[in-house]
Amino acid sequence: MSSGSSGGAGGQPATHSLAFRVMRLCRPTLHVDNSPLKFDPCDLLFGEDLFDDPIAASHLPRLLGGQSSAAAVDPADLSYRGRFLLQQPTDSLGLPGLLVLPQAFGAIYLGETFCSYISINNSSNFEVRDVVIKSGDTTVELNFEAIDLLNYALSHTKAAEIQTERQRLLLLDSSKSPVESIRAGGRYDFIVEHDVKELGAHTLVCTALYTDGDNERKYLPQFFKFMVSNPLSVRTKVRNVKVMLMKSNLRPVSSVNMLFSLNKLSYFVMIKSIFSQDTTFLEACIENHTKSDLYMDQVEFEPAQYWSATVLRAEYHSSEPSSVLSETFKEPILIKSGGGIYNYLYQLKFSSPDNAQFKAESSKILGKLQITWRTNLGEPGRLQTQHILGNPVTRKDIELHAVEMPSVIMLEKSFLVGLNLINLTDRVLGPFQVWVSEVGSPDEKAVVVNGLQTMTLGEVQPHSSLKFQLNLIAVKHGIQKISGITVYDTVEKKTYESLFEMEIYVDLE
């Protein structure tokens, strides 16, 4: 953290009795012993194969006892002959159990709580009186123009503040209850906290208005600058998938045609309805940019209105049975320092299939991520992403879905396909004409219309549907595709093609 203070009037440096000292309050770190690797003398005298011989293993306690007594170091011995020997088994960890206070200001990251211990010292030989202390944090954009710090401080003496381009936030203001006096060589201490919510350059502004030993009223501003970095980067991908769902039941038959055996009875699947459902998958990749490991307490996706979200996790087959305690106290996810990543996958669906779907698609806002974490010694952090937008959705006027399909389709035998025409607009559409277009040569067509080539349908109300049946016949066996169904709006003179495609299996017998 760099510090600075303003000069006196007319550009002359002012002599002040008081001075601010700032120390950042953060968790200490573990002291690591930098001494060479320590060892036990028994490891040099006895190999691992000693335990293979039962006779030699029986004499091991006596041998170890003799070596332990020989390796014991007298505390009064000031020589270094035992500096490589393990006195305690925990000495091999290199952690003597001491904690080290921060030796530097360190890095400050977005989402953390900036806590600072501020001390105002009286370095003069006289007592100062009526000390009004103000402290604030000023956030300045990187392209913010330089200003005269003294004039800035004099114009903002009414409060300590955090200032961005649009707002200011007070941290401390003792104007209503000034410090009566600070004796010569004495000090006054206080602590300020601030939740860091912006990136870039920050300035901690500390000001004091006091009366010195010459009964002169003086004003002391000091500025401490630091940078705020981003601890995480969140990359997202949104994928829209159309899932085909079928409702079916089982009926017994006598022939063996597309059947399977169940309790020595033959059954086939009678498809009652086929419909599609749009599912959105959100992938979030979180990367750690800090110099310490991050333990993710929570990475929760808060869906926007009309959406519901489910987190998808890999299934780990563990031999230990799961308990209520393990579900309550879940182990945090570790993202290693210096570029470690972890991926999360969420499945998003519309919470209600009615008009909410159209409102959600028009807004394109899926939601936002709430991320909380802790460092090695438990310092918390919290971030919230901006709104995550979905992929552009092409607004359709109508959709065509299959709702009924026979389970067995025979070659050159007619069959009925139940279709559902859905109006996705806010207006009445229709009447319609439906036919199967001839794509390519007639010899290549595997499924054709049986009977009238054009079917007339009535009007469809807004956000409603109309069910109808199409009589088709398959002229080729094997896996074939039903395609080319065309819907024509006779009022708006608009043709809708490629609304529906489906693969079927055509059997010979």
Summarize the structure.
The chain has helices at residues 41-45, 54-58, 60-71, 149-154, 324-328, 355-363; strands spanning 2-5, 18-24, 29-30, 99-100, 108-109, 113-122, 128-140, 162-163, 168-173, 179-182, 187-195, 200-211, 217-229, 232-252, 260-262, 265-288, 294-303, 307-312, 333-335, 341-350, 365-374, 380-384, 388-389, 398-404, 409-410, 414-423, 432-436, 447-449, 454-457, 465-474, 478-482, 485-489, 494-496, 502-507. It has 509 residues and is mainly β.
Structure in words:
It comes from Salvia splendens (Scarlet sage). This protein is mainly β and 509 residues long. It contains six helices and 34 strands. Strands 1, 5, 7, 8, 9, 10, 12 and 13 form an eight-stranded mixed beta sheet that branches. Strands 14, 15, 16, 18 and 20 form a five-stranded antiparallel beta sheet that branches. Strands 17, 19, 21, 22 and 23 form a five-stranded antiparallel beta sheet that branches. The model is unreliable at 67-71, 138-160 and 247-275 (pLDDT under 50).
